[in-house]
Amino acid sequence: MAPNNGIVWFISRFKDISDFLKTRFSKQNTGEVLWFFGGQVLVFIASILVVKLLTGMGKTAYGEYSLILTNIAFWSLFIYNPVNQGFNRFYFDYNNPDSLPLYIHLIRKFLTQISLILFALSVIAGVAGTVLFDERIGSLIFLAGILTVFFKISEFSTSLLNIIRKRKFNSIVSSVERYSLIIFIIGLIYTDLLSLENVLLCYIGISILFGLVKFGKFNFSHDLKGNIDNSLKPEITQNLKLYILPFIAWGISGWLQLNGEKWVIANYLSAAEVGVYAVMLNIINAMISFPTYFITDFFTPHIFSNFASKTDKEKINAGYNYIKINLLIVVCLILTATIMNLVFGELFIKLISSDSYTDNASLLPILTVGTGFFYIGHVLTNVGLALGRTKEYVIPKVGAGLLSLTLNIIFIRIWGIAGVALALCFSGVIYVTYLYFVNRRLIREFGR
Question: What is the band of 1 on the pLDDT scale with cuts at 50, 70, 90?
């Protein structure tokens, strides 16, 4: 059997896949996995309901709300997510009585310091917005910053609880958090108080409450008696820095690829057009992003375990073929989503918003393909991650982000919102092609 024939390998090695599934869903962890998956589904449904309710504010207000979310996404991808991945990666390395108190202290110190920095920046930016523009813009900037602070504490705590396997608690609390927001939004609608400012205030209040609950649970889950031993601090911080830095570059690129275009649309078109585009992007994320990350998370441990056997060619080939199977599933997912959006795209838009958001429904299939390239790239980077060569992707990822921003500026000025779809496809093809050749070189160097 040819090792690069992924489909044939999948069929002939069905027993291996079956054993893998049994390992992942054994009697001991089935409940944990179901709680995790069930919680994710409930949060996902809640997110769709929030979109449905908030689009009632009107296209302009919803566009402004979407721009505020890009601010949260920026800090997520630039700081919080890389640091969170670092703390998660090394948690079990330092999960012992000597080093764990220091490790938890470093987590608290990071969240405290970044929160204070963002709070100060929010105050400064809010005042500047009031002086340069008007009071409403200044208040929105300030509220957006404060929301980022508390929302990220809540989200960061969610990830920490998952790493210590408090999935049942996490799923319940995260679901209650999301549905509490829905209840407050419905209350705003029925009292005729639905506005962007009031929505942000509700969001901030809920994030504060549940962030404290989740981070408190994380703290109380550890017996941290005794003094903090700082002797390991240089080692821990050095390991974290080396692991985190490439992800910061990745984060900037990811933000430019999936969020930067909203600001270009707002600048050259209008906030209302941002609202229309954001609704279509929510549909695409529901059909591609959510299942892609779940599927990739499912395959990643098996990929890494096979690549860890650096001298066993059969296992290395098996690991590479798992990546190909993962890629095959994601490509099929993108093709299915594209066809469904081609046939039912306008209906989907109406279901999660209203008729006023359907002006550019014909672009939905093209946007699906363009966005799909980003997730294909996400799967392809598993090769470098498995080989411990994350730095190899810094240039293609940053380059793709800058290319995407440049093309969006050019194309949107010429073709309007249709230019976003063209820019996504054009930059996506180049990005995936570049990653393909990087992976070929890595595999050749590795001696496969």
Answer: very low
